[in-house]
Design brief:
Blueprint: E1 2-6, H1 10-22, E2 26-30, H2 33-42, E3 47-50, E4 53-54, E5 57-58, H3 59-68, E6 75-79, H4 84-92, E7 97-100, H5 105-119, E8 127-129, E9 132-135, E10 140-143, E11 146-148, H6 152-163, H7 171-178, H8 189-201, E12 206-209, E13 213-216
Parallel strand pairs: 1-2, 1-3, 3-6, 6-7
Antiparallel strand pairs: 4-5, 8-9, 9-10, 10-11, 12-13
Amino acid sequence: MRILIVEDDDILGSGLKVGLEMNGFTADLTTRCDEAEAALRGGGIDAVVLDVMLPDGSGRDLLLRLRARGDSTPVLFLTALDSVADRIAGLDAGADDHLGKPFDLDEVSARLRALLRRAVQRPTACLTWNGVTLDPAALTARNAGGEVHLSRREFRVLHALMERPRSIVSKAQIEEKLYGFQEGVESNAVEVHVHNLRAKLGSRSIETVRGVGYRMAEPAR
C-alpha cells in the first residue's frame, strides 16, 4: 500500500511518513502541488494524504485538477482548516475523507485502510486466500499452523499479491509497493522476499510466471 503525503511542514510530514511506514504502508513525502502531480502521473500511488495550504497553491485546486483528468486515487484531506465549511469544500472538490489537525496516527492509518478497501469494493480489512489470512491493521499473517512471522517487506510483498490473488503482479509493481521515490531498489530483493515467503507459507504458495511476475497459487482441488 503506497501512500503519497503532500505536506509542507517538515516535522509533521516526516513524522507522518515514519508513522505510516511503521503501520505497514510505503510512504512518499512531497511538499508542493507540482511534485504531487508529477508523482501521481508516474503511477503506483494507492492513496494520497493531502494538506490544503501548500507553498505553490491549494490542495483543493490540485484535487480538482486530478479529478478533472479522471484520476480517482483516494484522497484524505489532513488539514488545520477543519470547520464544517472547510470539510464540505474538500469533499465537494473530490476528497474521499477529511481529518483535522491535530490527529491521531492510528486513526489516519485506519481511515487510509478504509479508503483502500472501498476503492476495490472489499468489505473487510483482512485478505484471505488458500488458507492464508493477512490482517493489514494488525500487520499479521496466519495460516493453518497459526501466526506466521513476516518482516515488514515480506508483509508488503504478500499484501501486493493477495490484493489480486488470481492476477499476475510484475516485479516492477511489487517494487513500487516496497520502495519510496528516494530509496534505492535492490536488484534481487523481490526474489529474496518471495523465496522467504515460500519457506514460511509453503513452497507452492506463490507461483512464478516466468518473464512476467508472480501470483498466489490456486487452492488445491
